[in-house]
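re: that chain from earlier
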Amino acid sequence: MLIYEMKLKGNSDQLRRLDAAIRTGRFIRNSIIRAWIDGNIKGRNDAYKYSKILSDNNSQFPWVNKLNSMARQAHAERAWVSIARFYDNCKKKIKGKKGFPRFKKYQVRASVEYKTSGWKLSECRKYITFTDKFNAGTFRLWGSRDLHYYQISQINRVRVVRRHDGYYAQFLINHTREEKKELSNKQSGLDVGLNHFYTDNHGEKVENPRFLRRDEKRIKKLQRRLSRCEKGSQNRKKARNRLGRAHLSVSRRRNDWACKLAQRVIQTNDLVAIENLRVRSMIKNHKLAKSIADAAWSKFRDWLEYFGKVYGVPVVAIEPAYTSQNCSVCGIKVQKSLSTRTHICECGLILDRDENAAINILQAALKKLSTTVGQTESNDSGESDLCYQQETVDSKSSRRKSKPSQ
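^ sequence. v structure.
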């Protein structure tokens, strides 16, 4: 699956109608969660039926019927996914909170999702028209992606996402991406860290970009401005929007950097070994939480696993226990604190701590592959695969003014 994202250009009245559609989708999801708590919904089909009941009840909820029927089903699916996740966590007896479904409240980042109906692309593929009863009309699509490469039947869903800097259309395309790659006869083990983003077994280090730290002074200034504004005022809305755009800029630059770095690593290696880190548990350390979140190790790993499938390169996840303590030559455990950055062993090996860990990670990956017949990939964390997603970049071709063709 591919996800192509393009920005929507429309007037203020059209955007208000999109807001109404997003608000209706949230209402359907919350209503189904409420009905499940009351014991009226037992399965996915019951959630579908309840969304139909809401749409037929024109006296109490006349706005629900304005949303496309498949869009109502999509939001019923969202509600049931959260319920099913809660059930699965209870069955697995996960420690701590089980993820009890919560009601969604208003937030700037929200979305409404259409399936195969409720929208129509123009022949030039530069305009999209929403055909439900909200009558949002036709929007200009701005972006560098070309939808002419795919048939309309390949587009399974269209999601309208609201962010601080505007509205975006995401197209879920049924297409398997495959790229050819020549063998490089190179294998790499990667040890991620905070001083350097990662160190490989060859001694190569990649600097940690620290995108949040770079913009932290500006973000704190915008936060102070927001706190001084009166609640409910227009100035507060503007201040919140400026703060949200600043965080959005950091997030986009971090994701773009991780994507390009992961692609480069995959293209230059025939095997990549990484650590199976539990980042959610690591950020409970409040002294390092901000730095760990800013490093985006999970995002980098997701991109590695995605490009590994695209280029046919095995990506093996290894448990990180003792990779920094054990000697990569003799295997003796050498105790060292986090402040000790050099590995010194009795066998005479003197090596950078992170490089020693990267060698251990690669050796463990090779051993794991040798004991698993036919294994080409490993995903020990159980995380879902990342669909290809690129933030919208305006291109010259997309800025040309043209009339929508019917």
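The chain has nine helices and 15 strands.
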